[in-house]
UniProtKB/TrEMBL annotation:
Gene3D superfamilies: Transferase(Phosphotransferase) domain 1. GO terms for cellular component: cytoplasm; nucleus. Residues 84-278 form the Protein kinase domain. GO terms for molecular function: ATP binding; histone H3T3 kinase activity. This is Protein kinase domain-containing protein. GO terms for biological process: intracellular signal transduction; mitotic cell cycle.
Length: 278
């Protein structure tokens, strides 16, 4: 199992990914006690703090550094199966299946996306280079913790055999779990307040415009199944967006969260990045 994490200091040449040095001290202090294993209670406490980018990066560092620290002693597949439990298929699309997993005793922290038909390297690249960096400023993109190569599932309806024994490998992308959410389509079908729906559409539009302004980003598959509505608060709040030197404030009770970056386009270092260039 080859691992790519969101905070890797190395350049992943095939993805063009360069990130901060792995697990800065302030991230380690958030999560670690005396051992190399992240404290489960601290992971649980950070899980709900969705607005803090440092918390998301800290979780990524903690989880993926486990594998790096112990590779000399254990096999990759053994480590994965030691810490990842309770794998359940929760969705399936053109580009693969989505699996919910538990890390140690922490539930609803990760989603795994894997495909035996498509190489998810580009989706991982978009997550690390666009979605995560945009998430520093606005809350409307699902965070990508990292990714890894591992043996594929045999039965997509019962994916408990991930990282088994074999030579063939596929790419898995590890997304944040969007807790208390429904698709935009489901939300519209069950919600009668037009102001809620308008707010979510404006959030999606402004967040894509913001990402386009920074990275020339285009989603190319943005529809009401690829936007999740995250239930946040009974009280209204304001989300700030900056576009073309103008600040916009959107009132809402929910957060529109964009997912599924497999067909997206962006530019990095003056070069176009599409699903055909990885």
């Amino acid at each position: 199992m080859d691992i790519i994490k969101a905070s890797s200091a190395k350049e992943i040449s095939q993805l063009g990914v360069i990130h901060m040095s792995a697990c800065p001290p302030h991230y380690q202090n958030l999560l670690y006690e005396k051992s190399e294993t992240p404290d489960g209670d601290k992971l649980e406490s950070l899980k709900g703090k969705i607005f803090n980018y440092n918390n998301l990066e800290a979780i990524s560092c903690a989880v993926f550094s486990l594998f790096y620290h112990k590779l000399d002693y254990y096999s990759n597949n053994f480590l994965f199966r030691q810490y990842i439990h309770n794998m359940k298929k929760i969705g399936e699309g053109v580009n693969g299946i989505v699996i919910s997993v538990d890390f140690e005793n922490t539930r609803n922290l990760f989603l795994l996306k894997g495909s035996t038909k498509e190489d998810l390297s580009h989706e991982l690249s978009v997550g690390l280079n666009v979605a995560n960096l945009t998430r520093r400023e606005i809350p409307n993109f699902a965070f990508v913790y990292g990714g890894f190569d591992c043996e594929p599932f045999i039965d997509s309806d019962n994916p408990i055999n991930i990282c088994g024994i074999g030579e063939d490998k596929i790419k898995y992308v590890m997304y944040e779990y969007i807790d208390s959410s429904v698709t935009l389509a489901e939300f519209i079908a069950t919600n009668s307040r037009i102001e809620d729906v308008i707010s979510l559409y404006i959030q999606a539009i402004l967040s894509v415009l913001y990402a386009n302004q920074r990275f020339k980003f285009t989603h190319y598959d943005l529809h009401d199944q690829n936007v999740l509505v995250r239930d946040v608060s009974q009280d209204s709040f304001q989300i700030k967006y900056s576009y073309k030197s103008i600040d916009y404030y959107v009132k809402s009770w929910n957060i529109a969260t964009i997912i599924d970056y497999g067909l997206s386009y962006y530019e990095k270092d003056g070069e176009s990045r599409t699903s055909h260039t990885v």
